[in-house]
Amino acid sequence: MKLNQDCVRDIMLFIENNVTFGMFLHLNDFIESSDLKKYDSKTIKYTLGKLASVSMSMIESISAQVISNIIKSQMIKNGF
Q: Following CA atoms 32, 21, 58, 50 in sequence, which dihedral angle do they give, to the nearest 10 degrees?
């Protein structure tokens, strides 16, 4: 399946407009949304899966960077 860039954009806008800190959405919230009605459930599921995998990659990258910075700062602090 090919990633639908319009669906990516619309899902991101839906999240931005409908989610507050600490709030969780379920798959049906996306599928039943009037903002996303032009996409079938398969397209929405595929797009959410891709967005989730990108998010995890970003979190892993940021986590590795943070850990590296902590180690470096501790080494500097301890005179290494």
A: 0
The one-letter code for the residue type at 39 is Y
3: closest CA among 55, 56, 58, 48?
48
- Structural contact between residues 44 and 36, judged by C-beta atoms closer than 8 angstroms: yes
Question: What are 35's two structure tokens?
Answer: 């903002």
Q: Which two tokens stand for residue 4?
A: 């639908």
pTM for the model stands at 0.68
- Mean pLDDT across 11-27: 87
- 25: CB partners within 8 A, 6+ apart: 15, 18, 19
Please choose, from the candidates 45, 6, 5, the residue with its C-alpha nearest in 3D space to the C-alpha of residue 29.
45
